[in-house]
Amino acid sequence: MKFKRVELHAFRAYKDKKDGTFDFTLSGGKIANFISIYAPNGFGKTSFYDAVEWGMTNQISRFKNKDYSDLADEERKYINKENHHREKQFILRNKYVDDSVEGFVNIITNIREHKKMIPSITRAGGKDYFKNETVENKYFKNVILSQDGIDDFLKSDNPKARYDKFSSHFIDDDLVKYYDNIKILEKENNRNVEEIKKNITTINNFLMKPIDKNIFEFSNEKIEKLNKEGSDYSLIDDSFNETKKIEFESKLNQHKLKITKQIEYNNILKEKLPKWLEDSMKYFENKKAWGESQNKLTDYEELKKYNVNIKLLNKEQINKKDFKLKLDNLKKTYPSYITIKDEIKRNEDSLQEEQKKVIPLEVKKNKAIKAFENLEKEVITAEKKKTEVDTLILAIPQYYKDIKTFTILINEYQKTLAENSKIEETIDNLENDKSKYISIKEAIKNNIFLDISSDKQYENKVLDIEKLLQENEEYNTQLDIVKKDEEEYKRYDSQLNDLLSMGMNIIDKKSSNICPLCNTKQDSYDILKSKILDNPFLDKLGKELLEKKANILENIRINSKKIEDDKNLILSDYNKKIADIKSDIKKLQHKEKKIDTEKLEQYKRQREELLSKTENKSEEEFLSLKVQEQKDVKVQLDSLYENKKAKEAEKDTTITTLNTLKYTIENIEKNIAEFKSKEEYTSILDWASTLKNNDDLLVQLNNNIDDIDKLLDENRKKLIEFNKNKEQLENKLEILDIENLNGTIERLKNSILKLNTEITTFELLYKQYFSNEIEGQDTIQEDVDEKYLDLEDKIKSDNDIVIRIESLEKSTNDLLQFIENKHKKKELEDLENDLKVKDKVLKKLEDERKKVEKKIENDVKAFFQEDLINQIYEKIDPHPDYKKVKFECSFEKGVGKLNIFVNDKDNSKHISPSLYYSTAQLNVLSLSIFLAKALNVQDKNGNRVDCIFIDDPVQSMDNINILSTIDLLRSLVVNHNKQIILSTHDENFHRLLEKKIPTEYFDSKFIELETFGTVKNGNS
After folding, report:
1. Is residue 172 domain-resident?
2. Domain-located, residue 869
3. Residue 183 domain-assigned?
4. Model-level pTM?
């Protein structure tokens, strides 16, 4: 897949499609394989990459970063606060286009078109993009350089942080969530195991008395009888408790209510049985009427059919007579058609002979014109060369004078540059000292004193500060203990309050004067209640903890104040040192002489051009050479003028002959066209075009006329027969108004439908109620009698069930006195089983966690295609010693770690790039990782994705790395048939790309943005 064009309309920086169209095709429609987009920062490059990513994947990766989403939320809150109402927040949509304009991103590739409309915001305070949008075409994210994502984990300080940042960008979100969930489940499972063990101990201490199961037998016998009669009650067992008792009583009550209603319903059905005998009489009358109406409808529809056929045959007779008249006329004009046809044949033969002469003459003419044009070009070239030589001979003295002047100016500039270089070296040394002092300041602010601890000026102050810091650490340890005591106090306070509440409930219920918590007897119920409510113990403990915490915090504050004062004294000294260095740098900068480097480069360039024009020869030698060249050109021109005159005469003669021949052909073609337009000819041709073959047209014409005559005669006979049958049916049905036939048929159909509905309804209801088909009046009487007896039996059986349910309701209260012990036993068994399950689950979770860790390790290994990364990395070669990159992912006690090393040629040494590499070297490594991934991306159907998007790939790189990167990109375009679309804010880099990857050799294209959100004319 390669990109042909990207159209942005009302998307972020781009207001209008006419300014936001990026055309990646070359002249002739060929797709460019390399595209460089140049614009200063802030002109809309990022908006272009956002559009491509959103248009293809429905997401923008950089917006998944929490900082971006938080910033958007804060912006929306601020706008709402300032404007006193909720405004729409446009993230995708350009803020300055009218609401009625439909924004879109349209991406046209060589495979298909992807057009995506920007969502409308329908409510106040809403926004048009949410970071958790469903991703589409997920594979496409691997061909857009995610600089932020790769930089995040490359520059991390430790393996754990590096793994966390890598997983957030590049490991499957579902897999990461699954792994985190396993760890949460392991932790929760361990907590549950401890809780279960504690509960088992409590229950074992509680269970002392044996249980008697005989109490359930009486109730279960009754339940079994009810179940045999069709009920669905569970037998009462050890799990029976107060809740189940209520449910059981409710179910019994509902069952009794249901049976009572069933008895009432069956009584109503019994009373309505005689009505079925009355309705059956009407049913048999309807069946008879339906049969008579059905026969009558058949006759009416037959009559209607004859009426329609007679009308159709009359219409067909008229059409056939008209067609016969047309055929008779064609037969009369047939002789004229034959005469014209012969004349056309004669002219076409003549035309063919003349046309054969055209091609040889055309070839001869083209050769003559080409020969003449070639001579003309040679004459122009020779004349131009003569003019150039004449002009150059006149300019030679001035050329050599200018070369001498430029040489003197260049030498003076280079002398001044050497003086400035020494000053700049001194300034660099001062800048290094300043950076060192600034680093020491930052370290002091962060309580790091390694750089000044050995300095006698600050040695005592450092010891005092470190002593105070140590004291604060001890105070913080004490503070943590107090906080834990506070949490324990709160928990204990909550439990005691619950206990007091339970005690109050007990004494309120019994109005007792004996404390249920300590078994102490008081004088009265009211005195006991008052003492429980006024318990002072916890309030006193809470106050002691607060006072202790306040004292610790005050000590920390005093120490922190002393630390800050001492640090400020030291920082003041370093501020003075930095100020002195700045003053020295300013003085040196004043000494530097300003040099116009552009002027120097211009002088060098102009001198090189002059030396190139004079071919690096002496003035005398160069002048002699050009005078001889002037003579040679004059001789060549005289010869060319003679040849040109002869070729022009030959060309004119051939053109005149050819034009005469074409005039003759034109007249013949005109004659043929006139013959073919005659009506006698065209009418026969039109008719012949309807035939399957055109052999012997006159015979076919006569046959057609005979066929029409036969068909007219057959239709006359049919009309006589149809009219006779129609008249018989009209007499039978006694029809006076034939025009109202459709209305009569419709009324008859409606009557039949109504009768059929009544008959079918009665039969369905009868079968549903009696479970039999209707055979006759006698069988209906038998079914009614049988149904009456069946209902009588059901009513009696249901009354017996009600008696048993009421008996069972009375026995449930005797069960509850044994419930607590039985419940505890079952609870103990469940806990022991649960403990076994939890132990098995823990083992499974550990196994599953290890499997997922192995899967993540394999995924990381697959992501970092080391061989390919190293091939790319070595081509750019950012480091003189360390040439190979290695990635290692591992897990320790559920913690993921990702290590990155670079090795030397012999693999004897390795270092971490995040600690030792410069920003430029890290950027090269980042680019290598991305390109290795992007080169092998496939879509969901397994097709290669041959486009790669890179934003500002050469940040902080030196010139050698930049040239190596360009060579690498050029290699990907040529050898791997990739389309690379990159952007840059560096105009020099953009121009260098134009020279290194020119359009004429590499199908490249170079685009610029002229202002914010506007593609420069001629680029799009």
Report:
1. no
2. no
3. no
4. 0.39
